Amino acid sequence: MPASSLKNDVFLRSLLREPVPYTPIWLMRQAGRYLPEYRVTRRRAGSFMGLARSLDYTMEVTLQPLARFDFDAAILFSDILTVPHAMGLGLDFAEGEGPRFARPVRSEDDVRKLAVPDMEKLRYVFDAVSAIRRELDGKVPLVGFAGSPFTIACYMVEGQGSEDYRLIKTMLYSRPDLLHRILEINAEATLHYFNAQIASGAQAVMIFDSWGGVLADGLFQHFSLAYTRKVVGGLTRERDGRRVPVIVFTKGGGQ
User: Fold this and answer.
1) What pLDDT score does 164 carry?
2) What's this model's pTM, rounded to 2 decimal places?
3) Catalytic residue among 33, 43, 70, 173
């Protein structure tokens, strides 16, 4: 679809710091718990990964918010942990508990076995991007996303969400070489993942550094921001005759 056929490009123009007639509205929380129709679809899918891996369901829940609200962008429905799942860590979403990995990465041997996954294992994401772009028919742009290398590493090492990040901080101080190796692999994988989303039709991308804010000043720049920069530095930045903007969000990182 040529860039000129995009009916509402206020979101993209605002990201490029161009004049816009109003402040665009977009909701990065995706569909989630605030939409009853999402909860119905989630029950039909049977599991979160069943939802995320189904082309029809992914397209349905991506477009549900636009059927209710006049948003200025559509957000791809997916999860930041699809990449480590493709690495073979065994992702599962326990009811009421959130994501959990069957095979967390904690030892030198675990790290040695890590590799950038074959992007074909994530074909379901790229197919969804293409299908959603076609369905949108230029109404609004589509935003793709991924987790930051450090945020993904937090889940990979902790094995699940954490309140104190004890395991990854222990690795950071006792074996920084292992953490840097994980982050290198994550950065390369995330870069390939993003560029495949862009090639499939994503018109902007967002990096969620959800746990970067748990690092102290100095450590944040060394273990989180440096690897986010590697991802951004390799992104495809032009597609369909239009600039592809990138957003970086670090939760708790204002300081």
Assistant:
1) 87
2) 0.93
3) 33
